[in-house]
Amino acid sequence: MLRSNRAWLALAVAGSLLLAAALVVRALARRGVALTAPFGLGQPAGPRVRQPLIAQELMYDGQLGRGWDDWGWGPHELGGGPARVKFSNFGGIVFHHEGLRGPYGGLAFRYRAPSAFGEFLHVSLRGADKPDDAFPLIRVQRRHVADAEDGFQEVLIDWKELNPDGQAFDRVLIGTFAHVDESWVSLDKVMLTAPEASRSSDGALAVLCDGKTHEISELVYGAAADDWDSGQSAMRMGGNPLTRFNWELPAWNVGADWFFENIPQKLSMFERLSLTRKDRRVVAVVVPLLGWVAKDGRAVGFPRAKFGAQRKHDPYRPEAGDGVSPDGSPIAPGEPGETSVPAPPELIRKWIERVVADDQREGARAVHMYILDNEPSLWNTTHRDVRPKPLGYDELLERTVEYATAIREADPNALIAGPAEWGWTGYELSAVDREAGVQLRPDRRAHDDTPLVAWYLKKLAQHEKASGKRLLDVFDLHFYPAAEGIYEGGSGKTDPASAELRLRSTRALWDPEYLDESWVKDKVQLIPRMKAWVRDNYPGRKLSLGEWSFGAEAHISGGLATAEALGRFGQQGLDAAFHWGGLKQGTPTYWAFRAFRNFDGQGARFQKVSLPVLELPQVSLFASRSGAGDRLVLVLINRQATARQIADVQLKGCGRVMSRRGFGYHEGSPQLEAVPTALGPNGVGVTLEPYSITVLDLSVAR
Known about the structure:
- By secondary structure, this protein is α+β, with helices and mostly antiparallel strands.
- It folds into 4 domains: about 5-195, Jelly Rolls (Sandwich); about 205-215 and about 605-700, Sandwich (Immunoglobulin-like), CATH 2.60.40; about 215-295 and about 340-595, TIM Barrel (Alpha-Beta Barrel); about 300-335, no CATH class.
- Strands 15-26-25-24-23-22-19-16 form an 8-stranded parallel beta sheet. Strands 1, 3, 4, 6, 9, 10 and 12 form a 7-stranded antiparallel beta sheet that branches. Strands 14-27-29-30-36-32-33 form a 7-stranded antiparallel beta sheet, with helices on one face.
- Helix 11 (about 450-465) packs parallel to helix 13.
C-alpha cells in the first residue's frame, strides 16, 4: 500500500520517539531501575483474578480494530490470527488511533511467550506534541497477569495507572525492558476496556427466561422481492400492477406509478408459481378485485393522440401521458376497454382452479396466502384511468364477498387476507370520505361512524355466521412512516435529524405512548390496535402487514429501523409481514434481515420462541429461545448515533452459558462480523458500536 508523505513523516517521527524511548528503557534496565508507577506500590505480588473484559476500543483481535493503525517498531506480523512480535533488541509494537482520551477501564491484552522470558513487558501511552515521559511507563508484573486459554497470559492494567491525569493520547506502546532472544511472541485481544461507570445498570438489560413466552411466526421475515440470500422467509407478489395483472397473457397495467401503461411480462402468473413451487418457496399473491385487468402489453390509459399534450409524458414512450392537463387539472379518462378487459369473480375462480390443479400435478402448494387486491381505497388515484370513482364501505364489502367466495370455492384450504389498506386514513376512512373531506366523512358517519377496517371485520364476521362460509383468515394492512422525508419511496432523507426520526417512527408499530410525529398526530400503536380490532369484531383472524418499510435502505438508519421492525414483529406476535423494496445484497437493510435469518453465514437464525426482556431507552433487546431451551439468540440495536454502549445483558432464569459468540454490524461494516463478548456472573457483556446491530448466540444448560 502506498502512503502519503505526511504518513511517512508521522512514521518517521514515531520511530525516532520510540527509538529514544527504547534507549532510555535500556539504560534504566541496565541500572536495575524498576519501571512501575506509584499506583502499584504496597500491593501484594501475585497473579490477578480474571474478570469479564468488555472492549470499548478493540485495537487488535486477529486483525486491527476499526480506526486503529499499525505504527510499527520492531519486527512484527499482523493479520489472520494473533499478532507475532519480536521483542529482541528492545523491540515492540505501537498501535495508533487519532484523538483518544477516555476514560477507559484499562488496557488489556493476551500474550504467549517462552517461559524463559519471565517478566519482560512494559506498556505506555503516547500523545502527539507530548514528551515521552508525559505518561507513566508501566512494567507488567504478576499483579497484572492472569492465566488464559491456550497458554496465553492475560494482562489488565488499570486506567488510573496508565493515564493518571486523563490526558489525550493517540498511541499505545507495548515494549520490553529486558534482554530477550529473537523468539516470536504471540499477541492478541488488545483492547481498551470499558469503565465500570459506562455499563448499563444491573437489570436494565435483561432476558427473562421464566416470563411469558410465545412462538414467533417465521412469516414475519417476508419480503416483496425474491432476494432469498437475505434470509427472507416468504415472498409477496403484490403492488399496484398486480391489481390489473392478467395472469394469462401475461401483462399488467402499472397505473399512476408510470403513465398508466400496459406492460408485457415474461412469465404468466402460472409460470411464476411453478418456479416458486419447484423451489418450495412460501408465497402470498395479490388477487385482482378491481374488475379490470390489462388486455395487452401495449395500450396506455391517456394516449397523447386522444387526450393531447399533458403535464408529463413517458420519455421512452411519448404517446403515454400522466392524465393531467398542462394547467394541472385531471383529465377525465376514456373507456376502461381501451386498456383493459373485465375480470369478474368468475375469471378469478378459473385462475385459482388452475393453480390448484397445478398444485396437484406438481405435488406442492404454490400460493400460501391470497391477498384481496392492493390498497383499494386508492384505486381512484392509482388506477383512475379505469376506476375514477372512489370506493366506499359498502362496495368494498360487496367486492370482498364476491371475490373471496370465488377464491374459497376454487381453493377451500386457502388462506385469504384483506383488506390490504395503505395507511392511517385508509384504516379509518373510505375513499368516499377522503374525497369529501376528513371532517365531513359522510361514508363513515353513514356506517355508525366506525373505522372502515373495524366495520369491514364486523360485517365479514356476520357473513360467516349467517352463511357458514369463512371469507377472511388474515387481517392485512400496510404501514409506512408518514413523517415527511422518512420513507419517500424507499430512499428517504439521511441527515442526522431524519435518521433519528426514522428510528423513533418504528415506535408507531407497538408503543402505546408514542405520538406519531407526522400529520397523523395520534398514538398509532398499530399492532396492538390491529389486535383490538380483531378481538372486538372478528376474533381468530391472524395479523399481517402486507407491505412495510422505513426507507433509506442503503443507509445505516434504514438498516436499524428494519432490524427494529423485525424484532418487534416477533415480540408483538404478528403472524406475517412483507418488507416492500429490494433487500439488495450488502445494504444495511439486507444485513438487518441477515441478523435474524443468517447471522453467521451458515444458516444460524433467531430462534422460534420469543422471550420477555428489559430494555434501555436507546438500546433495543430482542430475545429468542430454541424449542428445546438449550439455545438463546439475542439481537441488540444501539440507536445512539455517536455513543458506544457497554451492554451487560442479564440472563434471568435462563441457565448456565456453555458457549457464546457475537456478531456485529455498524456503519461502514462490510458484513456481520465477529465481535468479542465477555461472560459475567449473571449474564453476557458486549460493546455495542454507535448505530449498530449486535447478535449474541448462546448455548445454555438449565
